[in-house]
Design a protein that fits this description.
This protein is α/β, with parallel strands linked by helices. The chain has one domain: Ribonuclease Z/Hydroxyacylglutathione hydrolase-like (Metallo-beta-lactamase, Chain A), CATH 3.60.15. It contains 11 helices and 13 strands. It has a 7-stranded mixed beta sheet. A 6-stranded mixed beta sheet has the order 8-9-10-11-12-13. Strand 4, helix 3 and strand 5 form a beta-alpha-beta unit. Helix 8 runs antiparallel to helix 9. It is globular and about 60 Å long. The protein binds zinc ion.
């Protein structure tokens, strides 16, 4: 999970491989805003950890085989991210590793129930500690792959990069060949954060979304870009993928992903014209009509609510408008 900060962004990254159809993603230009008030590494860390308090009943993580040699690890701890792992005779690739060493060890124990081959690659979908602070437990000698933006973020970095591990940073798109499989890792532009990666397993028709998608849940927003986030989800939906491992909560299929995308679009479609008409945030929030998504989990203390998402998006719109006024 993460949250609603708004920060400067004057770039975009596209997938260069045309089959992803991501070249249509548009650039947006939010600016620094709320981070001074809310920033800080500890804030991020506690955001991730404390979400345990507002959801989920303690239990056991579940491991599901979602396709040949591909497994989803659904964390029972809502403050610790899900993982996805691909098992081959040539090595294992793991996407995201949990909020701390303990969670990473739990994940590794589940992997070891299936295979004893080394974990050769870890992909971190973004920098939030609940997705990468288990790296050193899961794969102390694995190569750690992320976007360059994620690699550069300090939050959780000390846990994410053990001295024994190589790290690989990419911009745009990376194809990894492991055993008989190809793994497509790409950065669809700013969305949940400015450096998200999603991991597509074409042979398995499956995709690990990181926090670009949470099943039946209102997302927290970092300093990404909500409109591009919607475009990124459209691009994901254009792929031949049927099964999605979200950043948190249960494994999903296309209808849940489509519904999450539609929720973000509903926010956009209600906030944008009211912003253009000059309405203040409180009025916009009061006028939101999102009953269709009333079953979504919300996390008020982190502004991961419908009103919080509206505020975050409004901040992005305000930041985008300022350069044109100068
Ligand atoms: Zn996150």
């Amino acid at each position: 999970m993460s949250l609603l900060l708004s920060a400067g962004l004057r770039r975009r990254q596209f997938i260069t491989k045309p089959r992803f159809s991501l070249a249509a993603l548009r650039p947006f230009v939010p600016e620094p805003a709320l981070n001074a008030a809310r920033g800080g590494l500890f804030f991020w860390f506690f955001l991730c950890v404390l979400s345990v308090l507002c959801g989920g009943i303690p239990g056991f993580a579940s491991v599901q085989k979602i396709a040949p040699d591909l497994y989803a690890y659904v964390s029972e701890n809502d403050g610790s991210a899900n993982a996805t792992f691909l098992v081959t005779a040539q090595g294992i690739l793991v996407v995201d590793t949990g909020v701390n060493r303990q969670e990473g060890e739990k994940l590794l124990a589940e992997i070891r129930r299936i295979s004893a081959v080394p974990v050769r690659y870890i992909v971190n979908t973004h920098y939030h500690p609940d997705h990468r602070a288990g790296n050193s437990a899961v794969g102390p000698e694995a190569a750690i792959i992320s976007t360059a933006f994620t690699r550069d973020q300090r939050a959780g970095q000390s846990e994410a990069y053990p001295a024994t591990a190589d790290s690989l940073a990419f911009a745009g798109h990376l194809t990894l060949y492991l055993g008989p499989y190809e793994v497509e890792i790409f950065h669809p532009g700013p969305a949940h954060t400015r450096g998200d990666a999603v991991v597509y397993f074409p042979r398995q028709h499956a995709l690990a979304t990181g926090d670009l998608f949470l099943t039946n849940s209102c997302p927290a927003m970092d300093d990404g870009d909500m409109e591009n986030w919607i475009s990124a989800l459209d691009s994901i939906l254009a792929l031949d993928a049927q099964t999605f491992v979200p950043g948190h909560f249960e494994v999903a299929q296309r209808p849940q992903l489509q519904r999450f995308r539609n929720y973000l679009a509903a926010i956009r479609d209600q906030v944008k014209p009211r912003f253009a008409a000059g309405l203040p945030l409180r009025r916009i929030q009061a006028e939101l009509e999102l009953k269709a998504y009333g079953d979504f989990r919300q996390f008020p203390q982190y502004e991961a609510t419908f009103a919080g998402n509206a505020a975050s998006y409004l901040q992005q719109l305000s930041a985008r408008k300022k350069p044109a006024e100068k």
